[in-house]
Amino acid sequence: MTPDRLSPSRRALLATPLLALPARAQPFGLRGTPQQGGFLIGRTLPGGRAALDGQALRVSPEGLFAFGFGRDHGPRATLTVNGQPQTLEVARRQWDVQHITGLPPAQVTPDAATLERIRVERERLAAVRAVDSARTGFAEGLAWPARGRISGVFGSQRVLNGQSRQPHYGLDVAGPVGTPILAAASGQVTLAAEFHFFGRLVVLDHGHGVNTLYAHLNAIHVREGQAVTRGERIADMGATGRVTGPHLHFSLSWYRVWLDPQPVLEG
Ligand SMILES: [Zn+2]
Fold first, then answer.
1. Structural domains in the chain (count)
2. What's the maximum distance between 2 C-alpha atoms anywhere in the chain?
3. Share of the chain above pLDDT 90, in %
4. At a CB cut-off of 8 Å and minimum separation 6, what does 132 contact?
5. Cα of 254 from ligand 1 centre, angstroms
């Protein structure tokens, strides 16, 4: 593949390594910031190998790989590319505490039947997030999935009606019902369903374990198994599931690890 056949975002990836190994080592580039919640895209030589903390990473034939660090990741990690280990300092971040009151009690403390539904839905979501495909849509860079006001950030600790809940693992964008929801990158629809907490939701697989999730949708315009392109309208913003108003809950994950999409969104 010659450089002039690459997409602009992929050209940018090839041209702007943020970290580099010493000159004697095999060349590779990284895009993204090693920090808690950070999503990173690497590029090495075609046929190259990469591992994070001893676990092999999927590397595409053209040398692309992806990985990330969870909200509570420790201070460092070891990235090994073509046998050369390098220590990455994983920057610590401060997370907000967010209080939300006035939710219907049934949505804060679900009954037994609802708990069973939630358990089944969690398993379905875990299964699609574990998908390990050879797609490389993740390397396009993530486009904003909706226009609107940021009403919730990644990593905040939510306190619902005074009870602590798990951290918020997404970015909330508020706007009117019907606001177009766009695919953040090319990929395949792995889930199009209606869940108790998330309401109507879509999950896209962008390859190498990288997924995006779009929740509380009003209408869904795609089907499971369908391929989508970056920027394609996949749904409309809504207020389904556990919400206090219409917004998009947008999540990025790398396999089981939720990541902060906001620092890597473009445009
Ligand atoms: Zn949210």
1. 2
2. 61
3. 78
4. 58, 208, 209, 255
5. 18
pLDDT at 101 (0 to 100): 82
pLDDT mean over 96-102: 81
Beta bridge mates, 201: 193
Check pLDDT > 50 for residue 5: no
Contact indicator for 97, 156 with CB cutoff of 8 Å = yes
The verdict on 144 and 64 lying in the same domain is: no
Show the domain range for 218: 97-266
266 CA → ligand 1 middle, Å? 20
Task: State in Å: Cα 4 to ligand 1 middle.
Answer: 39
Cα 71 to ligand 1 centroid, rounded to whole Å: 15
Ligand 1: centre distance to CA 76 (Å): 28
Ligand 1 mean position, distance from CA 249 (Å): 4
Looking at the chain, the whole-number percentage of residues with pLDDT higher than 70 is: 88
Q: How high is the pLDDT of residue 110?
A: 78
